[in-house]
Amino acid sequence: MFLKRARPRPSLRARESDLPDSVSTSSPLSKTSPVPTVDHTENPKPSIENGLDESSGSLLDRKMRQKKDKGKNKPGTKGASLSFGGEDEKELFKPRKSILSQRIKLPSTTGEFTSSSATVPSDGSSGLYSQEYLLQLKAATPTRAPSNATDTIHIDENKDVNGSGFSRIALDKYASSFAQDKTAGIPDVATITAAKLKRQAGLGNNEDKIGGEEDYISLNEGIGGGRIAIYDAQQGPHPESRLMREEDEEDEGDEDMADYTGAKEKLYLGKDQNKAAARRLRGEIDELIADREEDEEDEESLEWEKAQVQRSGLYEEEKIQKAVKQVYVPTPIPMIRPVPTISSAEARLNSTLSDLEDVKKQNQHNLDVVVQELAALESQERELRQEVEKAESKKEYMEEFRRWVEVLGKFLEEKFPKLEDIELDSISHLKERSQAINARREADDSDDLSLFLGVAAFKDEEEETDELGRVKNVGQYGPNSGIRKGRREARKARRAKRIVKKSLQTSEDEGYSTDSTLADVDAEDYKVAQNKLEHRAYALLQDVKAEDFRDPEKGLAVRFGGWRMKDEEEYLNAFGGLALVQAWEFWARGEMIGWEPLQDQSPLESFRWFHALHHYCHPRLSNSDDEETMDEEPSLSPEGDLVASMVSSAVAPLLTKMFEAEAYDPYSTAQTRNAVDLTNVVAELTGRDSRKFMVLLKAVLQVFHTHLISLSTAISAVTSPSAFPPPDIDPISGIAMRRYVQRRIKLLKNMLMWSEQASQEVRELIARLVGEVLRPILSRNWERGGKEMALKVLAVATNYLSPDLVTFLQQGPDSRR
């Protein structure tokens, strides 16, 4: 039961008792009033005071005593004792009241027992108390005040009715105790001062010790100084209270349920520790599952299943078959035994002999089988030894070959960029040469067009006119200008020189001559540049001392040939032939530096790499030294023709770069014939559907497209209204027209050489040449030799022209009418 007080509780000093174990008859809220005691040594008989120890007092007193007894009996209970460390080795410290505090007591109440007021009978024979003692005891016993029956006014039970600080319920139940409790809730300064004076008077000789020092903490800051008490969290919110709390009486249960509440779980830091914890958790889960599965197989489950099967009626008891005891029955002995004869003994011996012979034959057969198996095992062992030796030698060879390939790779990584730079310079030389020849040919064509078609309008310079409106600089760039006359004289000189050098007929029609030679100065510079390129290519291997890196026939061919000989299957699976070609490409491209396949007659078969790869792809067998097999061509190796691979990887890209650089002169019949032969070789080795051949053919046709665009642009410029007209009367205009058309007829013939590789593209090129270039010229000069030239064009390209062009070449400009 909880008591609600209007006033604060008294202080610890006011509530504590001087006799902690004595019986108190005062209020449970006050422990300062002394109680009478009985000397049990003088009267050992039971007394009323003993009964008071057990049942007297208020409900709070009984609860307090029960909790104290329970706390004393509990070994691990935290009592009112204090510990300063070393609990296991030293005695517990128990606070005791000082002598000074024990001497200071409040005045005794009127109902207090004294030795002079009454005495307990000491006669051991008498079991009764005196009448006077009983009256005093009755007067000291707390009683409940009688309630006023006439009082019908309703009063709040929890309200302070008389200003004492106690509710009505507390006053009704503990009236006598409250009457005897004369102490105040919290003593004021005057009360404390009076108590100090009384204590000083009692002690007398301790005045110096007490002095002016206060032995209490005042609630008034002005008087007590406002000292702060130190709070210890381990002692609880009210350390001065001796009431047992529920937490002190019973444990909270966290220690018992720690395995289930997660109190023992740890927080792991780090990815690895979390993974390890997860693995341990999965292992524990697997163990629990395994334990659960084992529990399911226990006897109780089996018994329950057996009972269910019996209930279904399909269960049959296993019938225990009792073993029949066999009784030994001896073989009966005949009464009369016949006497053995010689024939029976011989028969028995013959039977035994035949059995022994069969056993001997079987053993002999087994011996032969064992001998054969032993021979087979020995043969197998020899084969295994040979295979092991072969594998060991192969391993050593491949290790050495791998190291050599690594060195080769480093060598090629260092030399290949330098070789590519030399190739770029070679292509640039070819491009400069072709540009010079094309520029000179365009100038010759412009000189011829100026005589029979006119001169194109000026673009770079503004026209200067005189007072009559005539252009002043027409004479500088006109048909008969000094520049044009000088170029015509130079062309005649070159033609005369070429006729003398090649012993040509003077009657050869002018215009069919290609005139693709450089001037003497330019030719000399070109030759010097080509020689420098060859020296640079030779200098690539000048610092190489190893013979197998200088000559691929002594290095690549020997190394890869040995690999093919030792393990041909692995060589083919690893595409050793293609690897050989890829490595040999460096020496092949270096050998082709300065090669002009369109100018000279050196074919692919003239290179060393071509013959070396051909011999490598057609190896001679070791037993092919006979005279009959020497003349025969060795068969192709399983890896295929490596010459075709080299042409596809090195030759075709080189030819494509040459055609893209316009190194091919489409007006040269010799170059056209060489170009056609090279493309046929590439098509035969790589295939006409291969990507390398298609790219090469596209580069060749692009050369013709470029020339046709240039010619068409020139014709459009000289036939435009803004162009300057040709001279009215010029005896060489007809010669210039025939020379120009004959040069185009030669271009037309060279186009027809490519009809086998690209017939449709060639047909389109011829139609453009006749329709865009030759038709305007022949139309304007039809009566001055154009008709004869038209018939020549028709004779060359009859099958490749459209019907309207054929009609024009036959009838002339009047065919449109």
TrEMBL record:
<feature type="compositionally biased region" description="Basic residues">
    <location>
        <begin position="1"/>
        <end position="12"/>
    </location>
</feature>
<dbReference type="GO" id="GO:0071008">
    <property type="term" value="C:U2-type post-mRNA release spliceosomal complex"/>
</dbReference>
<feature type="region of interest" description="Disordered">
    <location>
        <begin position="1"/>
        <end position="125"/>
    </location>
</feature>
<dbReference type="GO" id="GO:0000390">
    <property type="term" value="P:spliceosomal complex disassembly"/>
</dbReference>
<feature type="compositionally biased region" description="Basic residues">
    <location>
        <begin position="64"/>
        <end position="75"/>
    </location>
</feature>
<feature type="compositionally biased region" description="Low complexity">
    <location>
        <begin position="20"/>
        <end position="38"/>
    </location>
</feature>
<protein>
    <recommendedName>
        <fullName>GC-rich sequence DNA-binding factor</fullName>
    </recommendedName>
</protein>
<feature type="compositionally biased region" description="Acidic residues">
    <location>
        <begin position="246"/>
        <end position="258"/>
    </location>
</feature>
<feature type="coiled-coil region">
    <location>
        <begin position="271"/>
        <end position="305"/>
    </location>
</feature>
<feature type="coiled-coil region">
    <location>
        <begin position="342"/>
        <end position="397"/>
    </location>
</feature>
<feature type="region of interest" description="Disordered">
    <location>
        <begin position="232"/>
        <end position="266"/>
    </location>
</feature>
<dbReference type="InterPro" id="IPR012890">
    <property type="entry name" value="GCFC2-like"/>
</dbReference>
<dbReference type="InterPro" id="IPR028211">
    <property type="entry name" value="Ntr2"/>
</dbReference>
<dbReference type="GO" id="GO:0003677">
    <property type="term" value="F:DNA binding"/>
</dbReference>
<keyword id="KW-0175">Coiled coil</keyword>
<dbReference type="Pfam" id="PF15458">
    <property type="entry name" value="NTR2"/>
</dbReference>
<feature type="compositionally biased region" description="Polar residues">
    <location>
        <begin position="107"/>
        <end position="125"/>
    </location>
</feature>
<keyword id="KW-0539">Nucleus</keyword>
